[in-house]
Amino acid sequence: MGPHSYDPGTAPSLLLWTIEIPPGNVHIDLDDGEAALHLDNRCELFDAFTVPNSLNPMHPLGFVSGFLKSMRVRWSGVKRVQTFNNHSTFRGEFLETSATIELKVQTPSTKAPFTPSAQDGFEFIADPATSEVHFAQIGHENNGALF
Amino acid sequence: MRGISRRAWLHRTMGAGAVLGSGLWAPSVVAADDDDGQKRCGVPLPIPHTTAGPFGPLHFYFPGPIDGSASPTDGTGTHAEGRDPSTVTNFDGFVGAVDMDFSGTARDTKTGAEAAYKFHTDSRFMIGEFIASDQKRHKGAFAFL
User: Fold this and answer.
1) What is the average per-residue pLDDT within A39-51?
2) Per-residue pLDDT tens digits for A94-106
3) Closest Cα of chain A to B76: distance in Å?
4) How far is A132 from chain B (nearest CA, A)?
5) Of A115, A117, A131, B13, which is least surrounded by CB within 10 A?
6) Are strands A90-107 and A64-65 parallel, antiparallel or unpaired?
7) Total domain count for chain A?
8) Which of A52, A42, A55 is CA-nearest to residue A106?
9) Closest CA–CA distance from residue B22 to any residue of chain A (Å)
10) Range name among A9-23, A69-83, B6-20 with the lowest pLDDT average
11) Looking at chain A, which residue has its C-alpha nearest residue B51?
């Protein structure tokens, strides 16, 4: 089924792979060490097929709209507390945790010139039980002019 | 979310590259509604820190402890200034970040063929206040995907 790689692109401001979302899509409770991010029916992301193709301004493998049908990331299970302050540009208090993800994402069928050749549509449904976390954290921070 | 690890790929290609083109697509945040119902004419700005990418600098840190100590999830090494997980600068708020692998079932929507498929993700949220390019303070929430 070929490679697939989803991201929202890079803004003219150079803000990377970041989209604005409704505040209600985020829930965080640091007292309980839990947080959640849910996204539904979002089309502001692309299937760039590979990371290098995403970052290449020419997108030689194509760059087509993907569809994030649903995404649920849940953080819980505090492992360690980290505080840091560089006294000028960044300070934070974070809880290192575990996490799980549920995801359903789709790419429509494509044809040239949107991809070099026609490709069948793609759909992926994650199994949350397979989540293998390398690093996860939730917390509060201040940076830049709001340090 | 990607079939090839973003972290692994960037680490392999660091130091290469030309200038990042300015013609990349922009998330539509200009003139977004702010909490007070007024239109916002500014956009969130990226953190100053950059990680070398193949086509120019990328404004983010790889995941890892905020004290900037060594982490297997950040092949760029340690960061004495700390490792800010937010991609938005001039920010005061809450952040969640996760670096993980996961798998599931992929389906060819034309043929119906199914196969096991593996993804890697570095996903984050940011929610709070920020000073945008209009030099004004706003409230907002963001997802890094």
Assistant:
1) 96
2) 999 999 999 999 9
3) 16
4) 5
5) A117
6) unpaired
7) 1
8) A42
9) 6
10) B6-20
11) A16
Give the per-residue pLDDT at A37.
98
ipTM of this predicted complex?
A: 0.96
Preceding omega of A8 cis (within 30 degrees of 0): no
Query: Inter-chain contact B98–A18, Cβ cutoff 8 Å?
Result: no
Give me the domain span that covers residue A33. Answer: 6-146
Domain residue extents for chain B: 6-17+38-144
Confidence of residue A40 (pLDDT cuts 50, 70, 90): very high
CA B70 to chain centre: 20
Position A1 in a domain: no
Report how far Cα A130 is from the mean position of its chain's Cα atoms.
17
Alpha-carbon distance values, A69 to A43, A102, A107, A142, B79 (Å): 8, 11, 10, 32, 36
Q: Is A31 helix (H, G, I), strand (E, B) or coil?
A: coil
Six-digit token string for B88 = 């938005």
The pLDDT, as a whole number, for residue A96 is 98
Question: Kindly report the CA angle at B44 between A50 and A95, in degrees rounded to 5?
Answer: 75
* B106 strand-pairing partners: A124, B115
CB-based contact, B75 to chain A, within 8 Å = no
Contact residues, chain B, for A14 at CB < 8 Å: 20, 46, 57, 59
Query: Which chain A residue is nearest to residue B21, measuring alpha carbons?
Result: A57
